[in-house]
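Page 37, top half.
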Amino acid sequence: MFSKRVLTAIIGIPAAIYIIQYGQWLFFATIALLAVASWHEFCTMLRVKKTKLAYYPGIFGILLLLGCAWLGNPDETMGVLFITILLLLSKMVIDHKNFSVQEAVYSIFGIGYIGLAFSYLILLRSLQLTQLCPTLWGALPAGIVYLWLPFIGTWANDTAAFLVGSRWGKQKLCPAISPGKTVEGALGGLVGSVAALAGIGSLLFGIPVLHAVLIGCLVGVAAPVGDLTESAFKRFCGVKDSGSLLPGHGGVLDRFDSIMFTAPLVYYYIQLFLI
């Protein structure tokens, strides 16, 4: 298991660096593939509960949401989401024998949860494309720097939470959802996020220290919430992993559950205080 995780990281991290740096159509296509894979995993998990979601309309709706983020128009995003909800509710009324209220509600939730969350990765990468941030590797477009913040903070959170929880963890955080998580681990993860972003964000990326610390606090709180949210889905469906696309890591949702919560918060913080 550990060797598979390492191999996936060896391949995935350089690929992520290149794709984020290159941006443009390659970045959009990658995010779209990850979002569609997440939707597939979400539908597959709920199928275990005999709940069949609107699979293809869901893919279409998610891609439209991502496209709106790519174009940078929030009004279009809300319009697409509203129309998607109306269409699914109409399908529920017209085809009520084959598409129940429960299936409609889960479909709407999944499309919004996945489509909107991944949209914020595109929005972060698109911020201030013409502005350059001084970094240790020279000037980089601001969007690249901003996009790395939730990833670095989340990875540091996961690592620190695991190390601290394994060594000193005693008090359970949410035993009904994730018995392995502890309060001590969560606090260690928070410290890890703050330390990583205060160090890397300020020293390497040129983010003001105070802002880097505050972003670290946001990420440190939101990351475990995202993790526990997906754990609740999996426990509800009775599955261990959301999928098996990433060897040693499970599915896409297993790897991006925390990012789906931290990216929107980082985006709005930057919009409010750094731009």
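Page 37, bottom half:
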Amino acid sequence: MRFLLVIAVLFNLVSCCHRGSNDEMSRFHEDGRIKPTIAIASMLDSTSFDASWSLSEEFTQGVMNLVASSGEVYVRSEQESPFTENPFSSDLSWMKREFHSEEFVAFLELVEHEFAPVKAKGITPQEASSNLNMAVRLRVVDLRSETPKIVLQEMIRDSYFVPKTLIPCDYSNNVWGTDQYRKSPMGIAHAQLVQEIAGRISDYILLAKSR
């Protein structure tokens, strides 16, 4: 029994070292250049949209994964939001203290997420198709110098048409993380928005890094 316990501990140590080595290697390009590093803070959700999972977690993980998968930027894994300050205010002084190990930090806020009926003559709201209207506030801050500097700030908006069907998607069962959700209108809409956000973050970090 003790022998098996020792083996299990050694296996865990080796696994952790292996993950750490892979994580460290991902910070470099193949030619040895160090990738720009970014922290992507957990998205703030200012909407009242009712979902059985966290939209903040879904969008944050999606953006982190896509930015990291580009291979051009190093993203800290499992980034938390340790701050209590408003990341969209004019005060940036606290950011270097909270994100001292990073060159850049990205902040996200979901400010709109609602299904709006598409108005059509002779069609009641209950019978109408809808648009999933979404808006995300994005701010990217450069932390490389003594004074933090905003390199990108914009509102990203998207609208996804959701046709009326006889059997509407039940998002209490088809939740985030399932194959059914990925194929659902909301899953597809979120994936498109995540792709746009991740692209904007990567492009502006590489642009700022080149200057």
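Margin note: Confidence is low (pLDDT under 50) at residues 2-22.
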